[in-house]
Amino acid sequence: MVEEYNPPCKGVSKKIASLHKTISCEPLKENAFSEAAKFSRALVGVVEVAGEINTGDEFEVIIYKPPR
Predict the structure, then answer these.
(1) Is the pLDDT assigned to residue 55 strictly greater than 90?
(2) Contact yes or no for 13/20 (Cβ under 8 A)
(3) What are the extents of the domains in the chain?
(4) CA 33 – CA 41 distance, rounded (Å)
(5) Global pTM?
(6) How many CA atoms lie within 13 A of 61 on its CB side?
(7) In this structure, are residues 62 and 45 in contact, taking their beta carbons and an 8 Å threshold?
(8) Residue 67: is its pLDDT beyond 70?
(9) 3-state helix/strand/coil string of the chain
């Protein structure tokens, strides 16, 4: 079950940037990774029952429409 939209995490971006440098050994900007992920979002989900998903298994996709 997908629970919610997962926006970029600035805290994680800062941490990753602090561990790496550019090719010219300059420090990365704190938002380098969240900027790179700007149009690549993930979904947060939950596995309700452990098991395998096989070809032919049925599933339902319900697209969330936020209230306006």
Answers:
(1) yes
(2) no
(3) 8-41
(4) 12
(5) 0.44
(6) 2
(7) no
(8) yes
(9) CEEEEECCCHHHHHHHHHHCECCCCCECCCCHHHHHCCCCCEEEECCCCCCCCCCCCCCCCCCCCCCC
Closest CA to 35 of 14, 62, 64, 66: 14
Q: Shortest CA distance to 2 belongs to which of 68, 67, 48?
A: 48
pLDDT of residue 15: 87
Residue holding tokens 């599933």?
Answer: 59
> 38-65 b/e with 16+ CB inside 10 Å = b?
eeeeeeeeeeeeeeeeeeeeeeeeeeee
Amino acid identity, position 38: K
The answer to whether residues 43 and 5 touch, using CB atoms and an 8 Å cutoff, is yes
